[in-house]
Amino acid sequence: MDEHKIHDTVSAAEQRTEKQKQLKEMQKMFQRKNQQREKDLQQLREAVESHKCSAQTAVEDIERIFTELIRFIERSRSELIRLIRDQEKAAVNQSEGRLERLGLKDKLQDFCQEELKKNSDRVTSTKIRNDFLQYSHRLTPDLNTVSVCVCLRTAE
Questions:
Q1: Which of 2, 10, 98, 109 is surrounded by the fewest CB atoms within 10 Å?
Q2: Is the overall model pTM greater than 0.85, yes or no?
């Protein structure tokens, strides 16, 4: 150190060493900050990648779940339609069977009425009586052989 009358002076070499020391300290500090910044950036990159992976997994899960749900709904729809069609067929068959039995009943009644009308036009009660009387005879019982329990009625 050289003394100066008013203030203290420092040699250039000493000043330079001091400044180099400070510069090294500052470089270390910047290097630590840069390392920390790189570390933070790496963590951010990893977090972004993790979020991307999580989002992709969530999308794939949702796609799978909705696909299964759509298949289930379509299967249920098909089964319900088949069930409704089966019930419809059963009801139609049952109704048609009833209609057929009613048609047959009506046809049978119509047929019977027609035949009765045809026969009633041909046959009258008088004709029947005359036909019957044609085969009738007067009975004369033999009193010797007739049982006590025999009962005869006269024709009107």
A1: 2
A2: no
